[in-house]
Amino acid sequence: MKKNETYTNISEAITAFGLDFSVDKTPIYTKINNVEERYSDKVITYRTDNNTTFGVVGNGYEIVQNLQQFEVFQKFADEGLVSFENGGVFGGGKRTYIQAVLPSTINIDNGDITKKYITICSSHDGTISLQAFVTPVRIWCGNTFNLAIRTGEHKQKIKHTVSAPARLLEAVTTIENALETYKEYDEFLIASARSKEYNTKEVNKFVEMIIPSDKKEISTFKVNQRLGLLDSIHDGIAQDVIDKTNLYKLWNGVTNWTNNVLGAKKENSLEFVTYANGAIINNHAYNISKKILSGELSLS
Fold first, then answer.
1. pTM passes above 0.85
2. CA 196 to CA 193: how far, in whole Å?
3. What is the DSSP string of 202-222?
4. Which residues contact 210 (CB under 8 A, 6 or more apart)?
5. 18 vs 15: CA distance, rounded Å
6. Exposed (0-12), middle (13-18) or buried (19+): which is 140, by Cβ within 10 Å?
7. Could you tell me which residues come within 8 angstroms of residue 230 by beta carbon, excluding any fewer than 6 positions away?
8. How far are the Cα atoms of 105, 197, 205, 261 from residue 194, in angstroms, in the given order?
């Protein structure tokens, strides 16, 4: 694929991104004392064009071919809503992904431009389910692949069973909802970047709103949480490029804290950020921030 080249036809994109191969299953046999036996509950998945083996899966594992995984995108490409900009494989085809970029970008006043990708990824070795989600992360290596999955929004997971092709159609609804949500999120980011600059007292009040206490004497645990959030607001990843301590910087500080500090401490950081306390905190902070922008809440 040429650098920065995009496609509007999913078949062409699959070929360009090296995804034009099929996967099949084969039985597993053992030989003990010259007696050959077949495993009844396990099979091996493999790539049919070069016989590369991917992994051992259960008999109920249903292969979803690459074209089946990604063809749901074509509907949006035909309507001019997306184009296929990025895709590829890891582990010789064990894990696959395609990213469809939306035509608009989040263009913040400070020059921070973020593309929005509707992403479908999967595995042929049983390590991850088929997933559809929205992310600003452009996948280019294993780390960004994991980051995109970890932080993706509007996520839908589909197990590799006989119902997988039908469930893929449900991903279309998820994608349609994501398009509308991103429009709202665009407006939020632009408005937050244009908001006033907050002083130390106002920043502290924001932190108290995000980590409230219903007791007269705040616990040591919550004090430490507030200090951690303050640190992420001022010194978190890439926070130094935001020159004003406005709502945009406060919001980014929250997601920095939940994704890169709290999430990193959890054994299952993906579950924490996507479904557990990390997601709850992010949603709470997002709602608080919108109310500040609307004037419903004030930091003064």
1. no
2. 8
3. HHHHHHHHHS---SSS--HHH
4. 229, 254, 281, 284, 285, 288
5. 5
6. exposed
7. 203, 204, 207
8. 17, 9, 20, 27
Q: Which of 136, 140, 139 is nearest to 107 (CA)?
A: 136
Place of tokens 């280019």: 140
User: Could you report the per-residue pLDDT of 175-228, keeping only the tens digit for each?
Assistant: 767 667 767 877 888 899 999 999 999 999 999 999 988 777 888 888 988 999
- What's the rounded Cα separation, in Å, for the pair 102 and 182? 10
Report pLDDT digits (tens) over 50-68.
999 999 999 889 999 999 8
Tell me how many degrees the CA angle 21-149-64 measures, rounded to the nearest 5.
Answer: 30
Q: How far apart are CA 257 and CA 278, in angstroms?
A: 9
Write down the residue that tokens 């051992």 correspond to. 56
Cβ atoms of 101 and 119 within 8 Å: the answer is no
The amino acid at residue 276 is A
- Number of neighbours of residue 209 by Cβ within 10 angstroms: 16
